[in-house]
Amino acid sequence: MYHRLSIRQKQIVWAWAFLAVPIVFYVVIRFYPTANAMVISFQNWNLLGDRTWAGWANYAKLWNDPVFWKVFRNTFVYLLIGTPVSLVISFAIAYHLDRLRFMHGFLRMLYFLPFMTTAVAMAWVWRWFYQPVPIGLFNNVLATAGIPQVEFLRSTTLALPAILAPAVWAGLGFQIIIFMAGLRAIPRSYYEAARIDGVSNWTILWEITLPLLKPTIVFIVVFSSIGYLRIFDHVFNMTTNDPGGPLNSTKPLVLMIYQSAFTDFNMGYAAAQTVVLFLILLIVSLVQLRILRDN
Amino acid sequence: MGSSVAEIRASSKSLLASETSRKSASTGQVIRWLVLFTGGVLMVMPIAYMISTSLKWPHEIYNLALVPNEPHLENYTYVLEDGRFYGWFVNSLVIATITTISNILFDSLVGYTLCKFRFPGRYIVFIAILSTLMIPTEMLVIPWYLMSQAFGWLDSYWGIMFPGLMTAFGTFLMKQFFETVPDDFIEAARIDGLNELAIWWTVAMPLVRPALAALAIFVFLGNWTAFIWPLIVTNSVDMYTLPVGLSSFGDEADVQWELIMTGAAISTIPTLVVFLIFQRFIIRGVVMAGLKG
Questions:
Q1: Do the domain assignments include residue A28?
Q2: Which residues in chain B (211-270) have CB-CB distances under 8 A to chain A?
Q3: Which residue range is the domain that position A232 belongs to?
Q4: Is B59 in the A-facing interface, judged by CB distances under 8 Å?
Q5: Does A145 map to a domain?
Q6: Has residue A80 been placed in a domain?
Q7: Domain for residue A84, yes or no?
């Protein structure tokens, strides 16, 4: 049979043979669960009892849940602080590191190392740093300097940035490396031409470097935004005694999903939240792509 | 004449200016180096303190000194003798390794097929796989959990691994790299009578080794550090992965910080060591994956 087929037909047979297992995988492990999550979001279900249709009740409950709005706000605070701060710091470091030759590889290694760490492990390290005296490193340093103590993780205003810090820290190395690759890709001749014209470094940065880096910047902004909108490991591990606390002041959407589903076993409610998360990620990515690509 | 004198003056002035700017540039370089060096040292401080504390005795952990007075490995012996960390380490290693191998095989096979074969439905398959990039893992954990419950996959290696066995990111990355493999090579192998599976494995795969390495790094690191799904799907202590185990260990009553730091070091040091050995290689891989993926 097979031998009678033309070369083109043989190729078609091979292609589908190669794709058979992966297609089953993508249908069963990606597409079906996506549809399933959407269906569950319209149901009431506590894992044990019957599944009953709830219509839009889960979404209505979400809309009227003050905790959800708190969580919604927190999620965007993570995004709106995390993305610009990490973008500016990583660009500044990449820009200057790119101009150094002496021990360049060593410095790059120092900045990149945190990217290779485990978020959970480093969340515990930073949690230790934030403890009050005599335990925590930061407060010990403050005490030595005679500065009053700061209750990092117990403060409703400081806990969120305190948790964001290790997330930003761990992601910097990746962004720096990507920025440096982007900087390298800009042809030297552009800079030389500008310098012959006597243009200042500052103008070169704003008129040549940054516009030419736009694809790199778009990539980093979208990539890091998705990361901050999905923050979980750091929050969960730095607030285990009261996840998302104090008083929900650090709780992001993914943690609320986790608790609704696996602490309260309110599957329908949790699924509705995952649909909201999906929509947020979709909208934020599309808006960023449009804004950053256009202007 | 006058104008040429002015020109000479101007050019000598600019020569002088460039000389002074070169001098100030070199002091500028020194300052730049010092600032970046200080920043780099601060960046590794959390890692350094984690390791240093894991080598300290309980009475000196609140001491700010980075170098322990009497460094020792008792914490490691204690934590590993307990047995749990050892088990979690093995779980993480097995899961990350199998998942990496699976991604290397399947992502590259799919990427290769989508890149080098012409068949009806090719574009639809490509778009369908690509579209899964938009779906966040968190949206799928509830259905995955229900699926695992129905099929008895809860609390097993398979349960932890199955969602990550193939990734759209890896498929897309590999497809991009197979574009660089000339069709003539594949055609020549076909004329030599190799079957398509052999062509993929012996002709195309060796040509994209750097991309395979980049993919392996990302998949391994991603699974080694994965937290939310292993946290959900495991419930017996024996099945925990390192991050889940560490999280529960840190939460236990009256666990000392030096022991938590030891656990954190056990889960972090392996990837750091791998990085230090293959540094150039890994950074190149990260750039490739970041820019092409």
A1: no
A2: 221, 224-225, 227-228, 232, 242-244, 246-247, 250-251, 257, 260-261, 263-265, 267-268
A3: 64-294
A4: no
A5: yes
A6: yes
A7: yes
Calpha distance B3→A186 (Å, rounded)? 38
Q: pTM for the whole thing? A: 0.90
Structure tokens at A165: 């810090």
Give chain A's domain count: 1
pLDDT in tens, chain B (293 residues): 344 444 444 444 444 444 444 445 688 889 999 999 999 999 999 999 999 999 988 888 877 888 888 888 989 998 888 889 999 999 999 999 999 999 999 999 999 999 999 889 999 999 999 999 889 999 999 999 999 999 999 999 999 999 999 999 999 999 999 998 999 999 899 888 888 999 999 999 999 998 898 899 889 999 999 999 999 999 999 999 999 999 999 988 677 888 999 999 999 999 999 888 888 888 888 887 777 65
8 Å CB contact between B250 and A237: yes
CATH number assigned to the domain comprising residue A125: 1.10.3720.10
